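User: Structure tokens for this complex, please. No commentary.
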Amino acid sequence: MNILEVLGSIFTASVAAATLRLATPYLFAAIGETFAQRSGLLNLGVDGIMLMGAFSAFYAVLMTGNLLVGLAAAMIIGGLMGLAMAFISVTLKAQQGISGIGLYLFGLGMSELLFQTLVGTPKSIQGFPPIYIPGLSDIQFLGIGRIFFSQNILVYLAFLSVPVSAFIFNRTNFGLKIRAVGQNPAAADAMDVSVTRVRYATQIIGGVMAGVAGASLSIALLDVFQQNLTGGMGFIAVALVYFGRWKPLGVMLGALLFSFVNALQLQISAVGIQIPPEFSTMAPYVITIIALVFAGKQSERPTALTVPFQRGE
Amino acid sequence: MRKGLRFLAVGVAAFGLVGLFPAAAQDDVFRVAAVSPSATNDLAFSQSMFDALTMLDEEMGDAFEFTFQEGTFVVDDAAVALRDWASSGEYDLVIAHGSQYGSVVEELAAEFPEVAFAWGTDVNTFDLPNVSAYTVAAEQGGYINGALAAMLSESGNIGVIGPIEVGDAKLYVDGFVSGVNATDPDATVNVTYIQSFGDVPLATEAATAFVSNGADVLSGTAQMVVGPIGVALEDGLWWFGTQSSQAELAAESGVSFQVYRWDVVLRDLIADIQEGTLGGESYVLTLENGGIEMEVSEFTGLDEETLATVEDTIASLTEGIISGDIVPLPSAEATPEATPAS
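Assistant:
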């Protein structure tokens, strides 16, 4: 096998399709976290919300057989956990890092307890099926039809959330308020912008999207729930917000890069090319860090990130 | 006031003495406490021990009790529970079910010489008279599953998803590959170690990558296999499992499962401890001693004729392995043999 054949067996349409699937939960969670961070709130509890979202969606589908009910359950639970985090960090002005870890541990433990109590053992469900876009899913050229137009609804929605959130940040009054509150809450307050209301809203949006991120695993990509299903994906999502420099497009590129390297190492093993598994496993992290280093120094970090707002201070 | 202080001092001293010298269990109830790294319903490693203890509990009734601390993947968390149990003196046997707990067991066993400890999967008793070690010859069931996989594969392309290349996971995978190669030398069997026991999304994508490259049979080990099982089910592939029965989840995709029967070890351990031997021995689950059972899925989608062939093959390979005619792995790579207490 010459080098071109080897490369041809590695860089396939299935790797690209897997990249989109793997990126989906990261995208939902990281875009949601971008809303929170742009308004000055750091939520390290994203992974806990994802777990609760994953379980509630799974259990609702198991009980009702209705996928939309499952999705709604994940959104409601995620929103409520976002609300709780907002109450802790905005109203009570608690240290955001520590309270986020608390929320994560709550989600980890509660989802496990509920799973043990209500379900007992791993069961599979019928999740969201792939949607084949008529006329487009048949495109054979470079596997484009298979990669982009044969995914399940949540994959499409995850990527749709990127331009939608960019539009909200850059073209709407609400987006302007979010940025103002994140950069200079005192000035925003002086302009009659309710810092509290904006931060509650962004934290709830972040919670809802983290809930959907969890649901994307349990009722769309894996169709199963297990304890600690996310395995720390929520923390990677938080890191992706930094990687993307608080911009939806940057977040998406980070999620795609990380997922692509993961998909690539799986493909390399699947075709029987022997490389040390430890190397291939650390590759996504190493390459993402290198990319972060070279991504540019100009930071658009919200200056009020993690700083509680107190009028008059 | 002085009298009150005297009572307090006596009370504190008594409490301290109780703490220094843990009381042995004083009744006829045999009490076991165990930690495990994952959940008791993981369809894999932890469940296999939990099922064994539950079986003994049902068999022995009031003469047996057990407590189980699951999900202690972090060794420090497990160490807290193990120390608590050892110092309480309430347990006749303390089990650390995970090869990562070895150093903790070694330390605690030296500190509490009157408490019986068991740990696995390993064969190292640290030369301590109150430590038993247990492991499983996972390559035996792996070999049988591999041979069956080669037999059922039409594409000659088989995928295996492993966690980390250590312990019984490595033995199973190596045995599986050996079984495939012995049955069909032309078959391709590719292995992906995802470097995690619990990363279900990554394991699922690993399985999907195998399917995309033409695999029609999958196998795997550790608790993250719930994802690959879903892939096998969705794409109509055959699935071979290990550690616990995954028949219900795998439904018609499931073919056979290597089931660990830790109760075989536990029965021996309990008998030894009741006779006053607290440890010093290592145990190995094998096909021969009944510690490994090959279960054919009751939900399998195999037709009757193929199912009969599968059952016959399992019987003949089991016989061959027990008799020594079939050696799943060269001895240097296989599970070490059990050692009796010195």
